[in-house]
Amino acid sequence: MPWIAIVVGLATGIAIWTVLDQIQTRQVDKIFDQELQIQLDLRARESLIRFDRYLSSYGATTRLLANYRKLSEYLEPLFWSDDEAIDPVIYKDFRPQWLPDFFERDALAPPSHVLLTDPHGRVREIFQAGSDPVPAEMAIQVPTQLLDRHDIRTVIDRLGERLYLITSDAAEDAGGYHMGYLLVLVPVDATFLAASQRGVDVGRASVALVDSDEQRILASLDPSLIPIDSFLSDWSATHVITSQSLPEYEGSDSNLLFATFVPQSRVERMSRHVRIFERRQRFYAAAVFVIVFTGLIYLVSSRLNKVLKRMTRFSQRALGIPEPGFQRGGNQLVLLEDWIQHFTQLVLKAREEMSRRHQAAMRESEALKAAMMEASLDAIVTLDHSGRVIEYNPAAERLFGVGRPFALGAVFVERFLPDVARPAFKRLLDRSRHRHREPLGRGELIALHADGAEIPVEISIAPIERVGERFFTLYIHDISSRKQAEQEIKSLARFASESPHPILRVNAAGLIVYANNASRPLLRAWNADPGEPLPEDWGTAVAAALETAQPLERELEAGGQVYSLLLAPIRDLGYVNLYARDITAVRRAEQESRQHQAELVHVCRLSTMGEVATGMAHELNQPLSAIVNYANGCVRRLQGGQGQPEELVGAMNQITAQAKRASEIIKRLRALVGKQPPARAEADLNHLVREVCSFLEFETSRVGVAIELELSAEAIPVCVDLVQVEQVLLNLVGNALDALEERPESERRLRICTELEDDWAQVAVADSGPGIEPEHLKRLFDPFVTTKEGGMGMGLAISQTIVENHEGRIWAESVLGHGSTFHLRLPLALPVQEGAGTRANVLEPID
Ligand code: ADP
């Protein structure tokens, strides 16, 4: 309620102000007294400074007087004898000519006497300003301590009963000769003090010069107020006195103080004024304070009211507590207490609930931890600060082969680590001490199994701080299998270097980046070392392999050995691996096999020739019989004497022609039978077919079949070993004739066709023989497969070898009971570029 807030605010504000006022008054009095003292000190100091300066100005005036032109002129003709009896001249009623009217114009208090002495200080002339005679101490002889030839002397001293300011300076004549001293005597009295304090605001204060020994007043600014010869103590009750020592003057006998007097009544009046003013100020401040404070209380109260209402609603909704009475109005503070009680109860309840939940969570966490420990694949061991095992999971049991009951309480280092591993473990542990709560970098160690076996492990230590004690949890991972894998990887890495076959790696720039030991012969052949480039042609091959991403195979002869190199590009990594294989033996075997094959072919040919030979013999018979007939005819004619030379010549020519024919036949036979190295030449396939047919003329007529030739109109160029291809054709036609013999003569037909198809030269030998059993057909080209009595079964096998050597193909088609067709296909001879090769061994046509 607002009025309660206002009353409370006012009461509190007034109470606070009353307390503060009390404290403040005391503080203000203290400050005021200090400040007053400072002010008085300052004023006193100012008075003294002014007084001191005032004295100095007399020094300057004396110097002016001593240097007055008329004085030096006055002194010029004078001579003061030492012996002379002194009788000073006294000017009483008028000013001497050597003294200007300086003081009358100046603000300084006028001197009572001005003295002129000789150099010994004997007084020669005196100017007396008033009625007072010159003090006796100065009448005849001036004390020498008051004189200084080189500097001005200023002294305050007591002469008789009075204080005087005495200033002196040396006086010279116009020629600069030291003639003596000029002294100015000024009585230090009220006039003097008043003049010295002119311009200083001393207020109602008074100043005086005091004898410091007797504490007696010698000169006073206001003698009626502070009389001369009174004592300082007389005034201490009524005045605030600040006394300061006066600078001592050389030659002075007096020990003087400069005292400032401020009447006590005046100080008190000032203090009263200040206090009244300050109290009024404080009252205004207090009024503002009370108003602001009341306003503040009012604002806080109304705000609190709102907050409490909100809190009530909140507590009602959130916690379901009954609505406290303050919602219906009433004393806010009492209601607040009510509410706080409710709140405290709720807090207690909540604390209990939280504690219950915390315990449940702890139990869960413990269960979770236990489950984790159980399920962990890694060994987990917890050590106390002395390194003894206090926790040990099943994985640790498995790893170390030590049961939990035996492990708990054991010193970990002694029980589970061999001697060699202990220093490293200690280092890890020490590091963990310095990195509080942070997991460590891992370390690899050797641990000890119960059976004495050493197990490589990776270990990491996590320090745990709990209730001021430090524990360490070790996570231990068995790395035996990893170590083994590493070993295997290492051994695999040596794989290439251990290979007995050359293995090299070449980068995209053609540089050899790796070569194993076995590669030495290759490097020698290339004249290159690892780090150097491959020869140009090999570099090109490497680039080609990388570009196409296709492996390439090339051969290299090095040190008498033949190597087959597989260039395997690894395109994404930008290099090519070269795997080489020594194929010298393979090549040699191939060579030998080729030789054997050639021999076999030859043997086979001989066997074929056995069959052909009969025909050939028959063929040879004809020219030979003709020769014999012609020769016999000639002989008979010559013996009968009837032979005309023309007839004889004709017969002889016939003999020659027949002999040539016989010779041709023998030549061809020899070509077939002869053992020649395989050599290829270009020929017309049609021509070869005709040739073979002519060999077999005898055979065909024996079998009673005429070969039907269906040769292509144009020549079919092939580049083949002529003898070998003729052998194949002889074999095919020979087999066909053999097959036809099994058929009645009327059904025997033999047809040879040639044709040019795409890039292939083709020959087909078709017969109307009995055909071939399908089972037999499959194995027809296998060696030693024959159905003939006395047959070798090698003809077709050799034919297939020959054809395949020519990159061709041979195959058979057969319909049982209707005949067989053997197909032969050879690659066409490529058109030869001019000058690029030879067309050697082109057979001359036989006929
Ligand atoms: P050989 O003639 O010594 O038996 P080949 O290898 O020349 O050896 O022939 C193997 C076999 O193939 C022959 O024994 C024969 O049974 C069969 N053969 C070959 N050509 C024909 C053919 N034109 N008709 C039927 N059978 C054939």
UniProtKB/TrEMBL annotation:
Leader sequence segment: none
Its Gene Ontology molecular function terms?
ATP binding; phosphorelay sensor kinase activity
EC number(s): the record gives 2.7.13.3
Xref: CDD domains: HisKA, PAS
* Catalytic activity reported: ATP + protein L-histidine = ADP + protein N-phospho-L-histidine
Which keywords, in A-to-Z order, does the entry hold? ATP-binding, Kinase, Membrane, Nucleotide-binding, Phosphoprotein, Transferase, Transmembrane, Transmembrane helix, Two-component regulatory system
- Report TM segments: 283-301
Query: What top-level branch of life does the organism fall under?
Result: Bacteria
Report the protein name in the record.
histidine kinase
